[in-house]
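S2.1 Query sequence (DUF4399 domain-containing protein)
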Amino acid sequence: MRPTLAAFAFISLLAAGTAAATKAPANAYCYIGWPNDGQVLQAGKPFRVWFGLRHMGVAPKGVAFENTGHHHLLIDTELPPGGQPIPSDRNHLHYGAGETETMIELPPGRHTLQLLMGDENHVPHEPPVTSKKITITVK
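Output structure tokens follow.
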């Protein structure tokens, strides 16, 4: 039996790691409550990053409840493409236990921080639920 073109396309999508995006309320957004945009922080010392979320709830990875997700902190990077799991590396920190704050330490210099919500499989929602990108300076 020969696979159909549709079956081949479907298998190709699965192999590429794409996933159906979980729907989010159109008015949902997250925000960084601390530090503030433009904040200057002391080098060599961890600082707290506080996450906020409106019009959605927080649920840990692997838990699929409507209008929920968990935070990912993006450091010095752009938003990843939709429909794919958010990478897990030093620029994409996952908070899959449902955390709403963290302590991080960054090297001296200018840095950007942005939050992105992911569903139970770490895939960004549709539409994406993000914070505005802030810039901080570590001196």
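The radius of gyration is 17 Å. The chain has one domain: 22-138.
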